[in-house]
Amino acid sequence: MRNKNRGTDDIMHVTRIDDPIWLGEEAKRMSTELLRKEHRGPGDTIEAAAHRLQTKHRVDASIILQGWQRPAREMKVSRWMSVFKAYWAEFGAQQAAAYEEKRNGTSAHPALVGLADFIAGRSAQPSGD
Q1: Contact at 8 Å (CB) between 59 and 86?
Q2: What are the Cα distances from residue 16, in Å, to 21, 23, 93, 128?
Q3: Are 94 and 70 in contact (CB under 8 A)?
Q4: Tens-level pLDDT at each residue, the chain (129 residues)
Q5: Which among 85, 51, 92 has a CA at the least distance from the CA of 68?
Q6: Geometric angle at alpha carbon 95, from 92 and 98, rounded to 5°
Q7: Which of the 8 DSSP states describes residue 69?
Q8: Are 20 and 73 in contact (CB under 8 A)?
Q9: What distances in angstroms separate CA 44 from CA 35, 36, 38, 49, 51, one per listed residue?
Q10: E strand or H helix at 59
Q11: Distance spanning both ends of the chain, measured CA to CA
């Protein structure tokens, strides 16, 4: 008799970046990080932190709170764009500064540093010999 195993365990799962569930999960993670950063500790409420984010980044507080409370699949993707913009405004400068700090502190070959700059979008082409 032959083996009837169809190899279902060997299937590779790929997440597409335009998948609404993936975008919702990312937006949920981003809104959670935004709320955790804005929350001032005991005595402060999540709602107050969401309203401070609304005034600071012009993202609707209800969207932030829905990201905090609801599963990601229950919202339209178009509503998450303001969360993405607020997350980039809040954390984008920190990431750029961290990249610059690592870049200046490295002793790697200049060709590797040029390749890393190219991947990060800092130069038009990789520098190499």
Answers
A1: yes
A2: 10, 9, 27, 32
A3: no
A4: 555 555 555 555 555 555 666 677 888 888 899 999 999 989 999 999 999 999 998 888 988 888 788 776 666 667 778 888 888 888 876 777 777 888 888 888 888 888 877 877 776 454 555
A5: 51
A6: 150
A7: H
A8: yes
A9: 11, 11, 10, 8, 12
A10: none
A11: 59
What is the rounded CA–CA span in Å between residue 55 and residue 60?
A: 9
Token digits of residue 125 = 């082409």
C-alpha 43/C-alpha 95 separation (Å) is 30
CA-based nearest residue to 89, from 116, 56, 127, 64: 56
Copy the structure tokens of residue 67. Answer: 């990201």
In angstroms, the CA 15 to CA 29 distance is 16
Nearest by Cα to 64 from 89, 32, 87, 26: 32
In the block, residue with structure tokens 């920190």: 94
Q: In Å, what is the CA distance from 89 to each residue of 29, 46, 92?
A: 15, 20, 6
Entry field: residues in the chain: 129
